[in-house]
Amino acid sequence: MHSVEDFQVINHYLMIRLPEEIDHHESVDISSRADRYILSGSVENVVFDFERTTFMDSSGIGIILGRYRKVSCFGGKVYAVNADSRIRRILLMSGLENVVEIMEPQKK
Amino acid sequence: MIEIAEKREIGAVTNEIRVELAAVSDNEAFARMAVAAFIAPLNPTLEEMADVKTAVSEAVTNAVIHGYENREDKDDKVLMVCALRGDVLEVEISDQGVGIEDVEAAMTPMYTSKPDLERSGMGFSFMEAFMDDLEVHSEPGCGTSVKMCKKIGTRPWIDSEE
User: Fold this and answer.
1) pLDDT per position as a tens digit, B106-155
2) Nearest by CB to B122, which of A23, A63, A94?
3) Which of B58, B71, B90, B139 is catalytic?
4) If one looks up domain A4-102 in CATH, what number appears?
5) For residues A78 and A107, is the Cβ–Cβ distance under 8 A?
């Protein structure tokens, strides 16, 4: 379902280009693929890119928290980029601002 | 204050759909699409549309993961009934799964009975936050029913505020 380019490791950062809709169905595959990269040892930090994403339910929170637990014990960080106002709201409602660095949108 | 619109009584059911879904995760997206199509004629805001889709997604996911314990068996069924009473949407999502022992605990933010599945425990909190009203009935061994409602079409008020 997801192409190889959706997961890239650049300088120990795992960049995950998230799908249009993030629900439980999608989350299982995203989490297991991310973990394969994390467990390979080449990943320190994880960046979730929401550029394409128009829908996310609480399953997305589970994906982020799960990856955070895995990288944070080795001092790694988790970032959220290109999140629209809806997704930022969902992240904040779940208290994720304490575990994820939510990057401000780039000015065009 | 403007009270005229609010005073209107909640009327009789003007439209209804019943969708029976196999309790497999592929159908979470279908349930969202179905409810979105159902309320589209009410001209909802993007925010209202997203609120309803998120709440439905949470409820159907709960039925699949918790009610039917993630079996992904197509013989397990989730029933979604959407009804309109004027501009109020009512959604009931029910399963005949294992039920919930302690509904109050299950509704606590961050509580999850399945931490191994990386569930965030925010499902019921999102349903409560995004809908106007939420009722949960559950009986262990018999199943769970989640009833939610939301008034659609608050556009003029929201637009004037923002």
Assistant:
1) 999 989 998 878 888 999 999 999 999 999 999 999 999 999 999 998 65
2) A94
3) B58
4) 3.30.750.24
5) no
